[in-house]
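Let's practice the habit of predicting before peeking. Look at the sequence and jot down your guess about where helices and strands might fall. Then scroll down.
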Amino acid sequence: MDLSVIIPCYNAADTIGDQLEALAAQQWARPWEVIVADNGSRDGSRQVVAGFTGRVPGLRIVDASARRGGAFARNQAARLAHGAALAFVDADDVVAPGWVAAIGTALAERPFVASRFDIERLNRDSWVSRTRTNPQADGLQRISYPPHLLHAGGCGLGIRRELHEHVGGFDEQLLRLMDTDYCFRVQLQCGVELAFVPEAVVYVRYRDTLRGMFRQTRERAAYNVYLAKRYWPAGKPHKPLRSWYLFGRRWLRHALRLGRVRSREQFAEWLRTLGWHVGILQGSIQYKAPPL
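Done guessing? Here is the structure:
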């Protein structure tokens, strides 16, 4: 088996059918399989997946309910996978035509790869698409704090199995940014670069409620503080007083911007930035680190 495509799944009955439909239409000459790691779904996710038996190559559902979180689900599926390489996609996104062949071919040449994101297809009729930028439209993402390495979203990552096993998989303690941490550890511990594969396209679905967008941004901001503390070079001065001073100024400037909000899109942008500030504050207090 050349490639195992892994989908972590938790209560995704409304969306996973779209992902599996896209995978059923993929064509690649090499042997590949699809594994859905059920993280304890309480809706009809398993029934939806079972309906694609015989249509999706090597489709299996594995139990990944012993511990909540996408990191555990991905690792559990990887342990049971048959492929020499692993590719990770999400249950609420959709791979574009030719994605399996593109990611599989890329992994034959490079050990660690990432897909290109398209944010228009699944968010076309939503105000969300008018308030978001695509972080992976033309290349990889780079973090603003040490180790300043390139990284990519977990949906569309591909890796050779021996590298995944060498780093011990995804960090199961992380509920957010486990993909960013994974990219860091693979590059630092294995000495390989993360390569961008523009031919491998994933249609990404965004949260379409203000509450969901705020919560997601807040949680990601808090975990960014955690990762910054984890990877900050030993002995590097943090200058905490200056960090708090600059953070306070950003809070004040952002509060003043509320008076200039005139539309729902502008309010969504303002609210997302507020979620980031709240998350940074939460993370700084929780992890005893200066704000980013």
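How did you do? Residues 170 and 182 are 6 Å apart (CA to CA).
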